[in-house]
Amino acid sequence: MDKTINSNSYAIVETAGKQYIVSVDDKIRINKHISSEEYVIDKVLLIKKDDNVVIGTPYIENAKVIASVERKGKGKKIIVFKYRAKKGYRRKYGHRQPYTDLLIKEIILP
Question: Nearest 5 degrees, angle CA 51-CA 56-CA 60?
């Protein structure tokens, strides 16, 4: 039986190599593109519901966070410049990190 978490609780999740503290109706930005309209995060490290805290080892089995994709895009361009003194070696290129904005819809506890 799945239990949906109320709004005064939160979860710590891991996605795209980073950890985020999320609760229902939060917006987060992750550094990768998501192709679908709904994104399920199954790497849940911790869930706090009222006074109860569930800690995973390292993840909580069958727990998940469901988010909807709000927006996709690319970040501001950064310039990468490689240089070797006195060797005539110079390389300049730019990078724009893709991102996805997610809206957390629900946190499901097993």
Answer: 95
Ordered by start, the domain boundaries in the chain are 3-73+99-109
CA gap 83, 37 in Å, rounded = 42
Beta-bridge mates of residue 39: 67
pLDDT at residue 46, as a whole number: 95
pLDDT over 90, % of the chain: 80
Give the other-Cβ count within 10 Å of 43's Cβ. 16
Residue 47's DSSP bridge partners are 11, 54
Specify the pTM.
0.81
**Of 103, 9, 25, 17, which is closest to residue 63 (Cα–Cα)?**
9
Cα–Cα distance, 30 to 88 (Å, whole number): 38
Instruction: Give the DSSP per-residue string, 10-61.
Output: EEEEEETTEEEEE-TT-EEEESS---SSEEEE--EEEEEETTEEEE-SSS-T
